[in-house]
Give the backbone structure.
Amino acid sequence: LIENDNDLFSIWDAIQSLYRRVMIARASNSDESSIEDCLINALQKKIDIFADSNRDFLASILTLPTVSELELSQDKINPNALYNSYFNFSRKIGNYLFDKLFGLIDCCIEDSYKEWPNGQGSRKLISVIWKLMMFTDNLEIRADIIKAVKGSSMTMSIAALHSLIPINCPEREICMNIFYNRWENNPVVLDTWFGMQSSIPRDNALEIIKDLMTHKLFDPIAPNSIRAVLGGFSKNTQYFHKEDGSGYLFMAEQIISVDKRNPITASRLTKVFSRWKSYNQPYSSAIFKALKFMDEKELSTNTREVVDLTIN
């Protein structure tokens, strides 16, 4: 289908199906390396075909399923295994297709500076390529990322920052500081910064979240600000889903605190625990423990209803 179908949706769907298959296999310690190699070879051919004619479609087929999307395909969810699978398979694609992807950026860069709506496909494609190539540790790409964060395009600036989130490198901190200093007086844009900061995987993740919740520019009443920080943390797979359950308990404590001043936002945040029965051990038991911790507290009617429904 990927090599011969003329329908773009069918091609995309077939590629996404194989992405899910090989990444679930990696997370389950199964070997689908031959399919991985065939898939990467097929992607290489599609780059040659669509590099100039349809960059938006090319971006869509180079976009891997997220960890939350992969969870829907795993019988008993192991979030950290899925995260490692996503990380390592992205690195493999980035390394195998490095020259092709690097050349694509050169092709797209001029078009990406065009005023919206022109250049949308090129901007989308560059953002996807950055995510793949950041896993290759290429310093030239990191320099381009810094340049993009400093640039005039908000779309490219945010895309550049998102590509840095999983990578522990000096450029990540440099870019986060550049973005903050530029937009600290714009609360709407700064919520993006709060969300990205809270989603960065680092050993002191919980301390960072606590600092963000008391940051001088954090609005503890505004739903968007609360969702930015706590919602961002829920996407911080390695630390939200720590096997010792500390991430879940921390989230439960924060939701209880939020519930006292904003019950609707708290009740919606509680839904991050809604699929606890689908997780394997020790995650399932740890999430249930966090829910029971909440259940024993005095909660608003909104949050109490969600907790009761989730536990049962």
User: Anything to note?
Assistant: The longest helix spans residues 8-27. The chain has 18 helices and no strands.
